[in-house]
Amino acid sequence: MAFHRANKNRPREESSKVPVPVFREVFQIKKKHHRDPRFDDLSGSFNSEEFEENYSFIDDIKKREKEELEKELKNVGENEERRKQILYLLQRMKNQEKTKKLLEKQKAEREKEREEIMEAAKSGKKPYIPKKSEMKKKKLVESYQALKKSGKLEKYLEKKRKKQFSKDRKRFYK
After folding, report:
1. Mean pLDDT: which of 84-88, 118-122, 144-148, 167-171 is highest?
2. What distance separates the 2 farthest-apart alpha carbons in the chain?
3. I need a labelling partner for 163 at 20 to 30 A (CA). Which of 2, 42, 71, 105 fits?
4. Rounded to whole angstroms, how far apart are CA atoms 109 and 146?
5. φ/ψ (deg, to 5) at 24
């Protein structure tokens, strides 16, 4: 006899007249195996250069969207909320571009250093691999030179002094 549930949340009704079997039949539901492609070996390994090459069209789309947002910003009128939203999106896009350029620059520097090491090895010299501390100093000097060139060095140093002063004050008055 087949009994149906009155409601999907209620247990299934069964007749009390039918003897209960020794081994009750339980319907096994097959477990679904979810596969996250980020962590699965079947998806292969990530290659950033290949990714950039395959999805380079996204940069063009972003440029178009940025231009559209700039046009919309000019024509937004008195809608202050939309204006703030557009400004936020534009700033976000600029930050993303800045980060991407910085990463590309770092990658180019690493490639250049690698090539120099390889050339030294080919010519028979012992390859010189700089320490992390030396690399840090070199980058710091380059950033200071860039700030000096753009005329923002004094402002940067002033901010740094203020930050250090506040840190020292916190440390002394604990």
Report:
1. 84-88
2. 94
3. 105
4. 16
5. -75, 135
Rounded CA-CA distance 32/149 in Å is 60
Domain containing 94: what range? 55-127
What are 57-110's pLDDT values in tens digits?
Answer: 999 999 999 999 999 999 988 899 999 999 999 999 999 999 999 999 989 988
Residues making up the chain, counted from first to last? 174
Residue 47 belongs to some domain of the structure: no
Is this structure's pTM higher than 0.70?
A: no
Q: List, as own/partner pairs, every contact residues 114-118 make where C-beta atoms lie below 8 angstroms and the sequence separation is at least 24, other chains included.
A: none
CA 59 to CA 68: how far, in whole Å?
14
Please list the alpha-helical segments (H only) found in 32-152.
48-54, 57-74, 80-122, 132-150
| 22 falls within a domain | no
Number of domains in the chain: 1
